Amino acid sequence: MSDSKVAAADAAEKAKLAEHAEQFEDMVEYVTEMANAKPNLDPEERNLLSVAFKNAVGSRRHAWRNVQEPECPRTDQASIDMFEALAAKMREKIEKELVERCHALVKLVDSVLLPAATEPE
Q: Global pTM?
């Protein structure tokens, strides 16, 4: 087995463990390593890639929805204003993370996976 196939198999096992532990950020890192080491993915490896990015993005989407209209625990206007400013900053941070994660996936697909694809799947 070549070094790249060993690296891909190792990264796939790490991704499976990360999935089991629900550590989707780590899983994204491992499937990216896997794809870079072996760009022609089999169906199980494609599924790992899908699960990793779906859950990493999904958790951020959930967080974004939660800060869209948070309930302010305070009643005085100064506290409400401060709370709303904090919520806006949090939304911006989450949106930035979403964009970064989506761009990482598109880059991986465009620059690594599609050029190596041998089947129209």
A: 0.84
> 2: which 2 tokens?
């070549």
CA distance 44 to 119: 15
Q: Are 101 and 53 in contact (CB under 8 A)?
A: yes
* DSSP for 10-43, written as a single string: HHHHHHHHHHHTT-HHHHHHHHHHHHHH--S--H
Report yes or no: 94 and 67 within 8 Å, Cβ to Cβ.
Answer: yes
Torsion of CA 49, 54, 59, 64, to 10 degrees: 130
Task: Dump pLDDT digits (tens) for 13-67.
Answer: 999 999 999 999 999 999 999 999 999 999 999 999 999 999 999 999 999 998 8
The DSSP call for residue 70 is P
